Amino acid sequence: MLKRVHFGPSWLPFALVAPQILITLVFFMWPAAQAVYQSFLIEDAFGLSSEFVWLDNFYELFADDIYLNTFFRTGYFSLLVAGSSLSIALFLAAMADRVVKAALVYRTLLIWPYAVAPVLAGTLWLFMFDPTLGIISYLLDQFGYDWNHKLRGGQAMGLVVMAATWKQISYNFLFFLAAMQSVPKSLLEAAAIDGAGPARRFWTIVFPLITPTTFFLLVVNIVYAFFDTFGIIHAVTEGGPAGQTTILVYKVFTDGFIGLDLGGSAAQSVILMAIVILITVVQFRYIEKKVDY
Amino acid sequence: MIENRPIVSIVSHIVLIIGVLIVGFPVWITFVAASHDALRMTQAPIPLWPGPYFFDNLKDALFVGLGGSGSQSAGLMLFNSFVMAMVIALGKISVSLLSAFAIVYFKFPFRMGFFWMIFLTLMLPVEVRILPTFEVVANLGMLNSFSGLTLPLIASATATFMFRQTFLTVPDELLEAARIDGAGPMRFFFDILLPMSRTNIAALFVILFIYGWNQYLWPLLITTDQSMVTIVMGIKEMLEAGESLQQWNRIMMTTLLAMLPPVLVVVGMQKLFVKGLTETEK
Fold first, then answer.
1. Spelled out in words, what is the top-level CATH class assigned to the domain A65-289?
2. How many angstroms away from the CA of A138 is the closest CA of chain B?
3. Which of A34, A111, A123 should be substituted to probe chain B, the one whose Cβ sees the most B Cβ atoms within 10 Å?
4. pLDDT-based confidence at A267, cuts 50/70/90?
């Protein structure tokens, strides 16, 4: 970690780390500590007095059906997003891996949605599915299927999942393609000589060999669905109809900034923090071991 | 190519082309919507082929905005986004370069303590500490300013790790040689380390520019003043402004303008982008 040859003690290294440490303390550590502290408080509606209530905010949250539903909905939402974007990207990458020379061209054509902000991705899909004007909802209507995500929770969830998946395919595709291209060709040739067709080779050789990438992407996708989809939901449904597309991050925002329930919002922040810590630990443990088969 | 199976190859191409078309379809619809006048965009079904008003809409979006009260022209919003993205990207890179340099090349008290403190920021994304961070920024009087928009996002564990990794691969002999020649630590940093990490800095810049440009939740909280609105959050305001009658042609034109810069960066600097993505995720 430290270079064998290094500089001796002086004030300089402190000055070098100072900017980053200052920002970390003021904008990261202090607010996080505040969140933990506030999660133990109940404030009255005017913010005039507060009372220390230990874990009451947490008990209240977990006794609250709305919060529990949001919790499960978030899990279900992130599994849907991760599952669909991973499988579509895996499928496309497997195809691109076959067309060696053209693979990079397809990569260019598929990679750009990564750069589209979530709220813009939401706007694009919202426009296509607008109940009165949208092109897709118009087509669905021709087939006798009535689309109105402003009224139906299931359709709203579907739309948010589609927009979130669309944006994430590029990232997954990039990593899958890179992983597939590093599978030794000699293995594939040996299997081909033994008479294994493309599909068989994919499932018995390529897929097992890229498992580390798949695990890594699974974690990244779940984090993405948990935290980075705020913009999509805010643009497309604002959590509605009737809270049916509200996920945890969105609820922290609405309870804190619109509902002004400081204690409850802080308690939710603390739970989210715990989730992030858990995911990071899983990620780092896995990266240390590099999952070998 | 393992074996020659033309049919399988053709099928692969067809599947990929369909995939590319589906992924591109939303943007095509956006482009088409941005090239018609407001009246055409109120009639279903909306057109699938571009109309003649693209440049009129572009001019309106850039210089006029939606026209209603309190809405900004895209020109100003683009400028705000650009400043925010640049400050975040360059800020993150500079603070991370400096702290990685200190941690790798100096022996000093609390070295590991600082390292772990930077590491912890990885576990505290803006989303989990919005309210208290907002309070801090409000108390410091930084609402509606570029410093409020950017400073709280500038600490970066991933960038620090990446530079640490890069510095660890720099041969020790370079520092020995520099010392013999009488170079101090900062001279060594600027004349040897910085030039050696050039490609890493560029790759990281591509990723962080996109990250900064696409910030949404944080600017949404920090800016109430119309003159500080960034283009990414401007879209949402436009969607809300016309709840009864959306001017889809202008909204979609602004959406195009908002996604163009980061998309161009990714497509134009694809090599650096891929390097940045894979290096920071390690």
1. mainly alpha
2. 7
3. A123
4. confident
Average confidence (pLDDT) over A175-199: 89
Residues B89, B209: contact at Cβ < 8 Å? yes
In this prediction the pTM is 0.89
Q: What value does the mean pLDDT take over residues B263-282?
A: 82
User: Considering chain A, what percentage of its residues have pLDDT values greater than 90?
Assistant: 24
Q: Which CATH class is domain B73-280?
A: mainly alpha
Count of A–B CB contacts within 8 Å?
A: 293
Output the DSSP codes for A270-281.
HHHHHHHHHHHH
Q: Which of A28, A112, A249 sits opposite B155 (nearest CB)?
A: A28
For chain A, the maximum distance between any two Cα atoms, rounded to a whole number of angstroms, is 78
Is residue B235 within a helix (H) or strand (E), and if so which, with residue range? helix B231-241
Tokens of residue A104, six digits: 């990079």
pLDDT exceeds cutoff 60 at A292: no
Dihedral (CA of B6, A86, B200, A290) sign: negative
Q: Look up the ipTM and state it.
A: 0.87
Closest-CA residue in chain B for A163?
A: B26
**Amino acid letter, A56:** D
Tokens representing residue A242 in the block: 């009737």
* Cross-chain residue pair A113–B236, CB shorter than 8 Å: no
In order of B60, B84, B145, B231, the CA distances from B65 in angstroms are: 6, 20, 22, 11
Q: What are the structure tokens assigned to B135, written together?
A: 């309070």
Inter-axis angle of helices A153-181 and B6-33, nearest 10: 130
The answer to whether the Cα torsion of B158, B163, B166, B168 is positive or negative is negative
Contact B253, B61 (CB under 8 A): yes
User: How deeply is B217 buried, as exposed, middle or buried, from its count of CB atoms within 10 A (0-12, 13-18, 19+)?
Assistant: buried
SS3 call for B141? coil
Contact present, A169 and A92 (Cβ < 8 Å): yes
At how many degrees (to 10) do helices B248-268 and B270-280 cross? 80
d(CA B272, CA A169): 19
Cβ-proximal residues to A261 (8 Å cutoff; 6+ apart), any chain: A255
Tell me the angle at which helices A118-128 and B6-33 cross, rounded to the nearest 10 degrees: 90
Nearest CA among A119, A246, A249, A114 for reference residue A175? A114
Residues of B in contact with A256 (CB under 8 A): 130-131
Interface test with B, best of A12, A50, A119 (most B CBs within 10 A): A119
Chain A touched by B192 (CB under 8 Å): no
How do the domains of chain A map onto residue ranges?
A: 65-289
CA-based nearest distance A8→chain B, Å: 6
**Which of residues 114 through 153 in chain B touch A, CB cutoff 8 A?**
114, 117-118, 120-125, 127-133, 135-137, 151-152
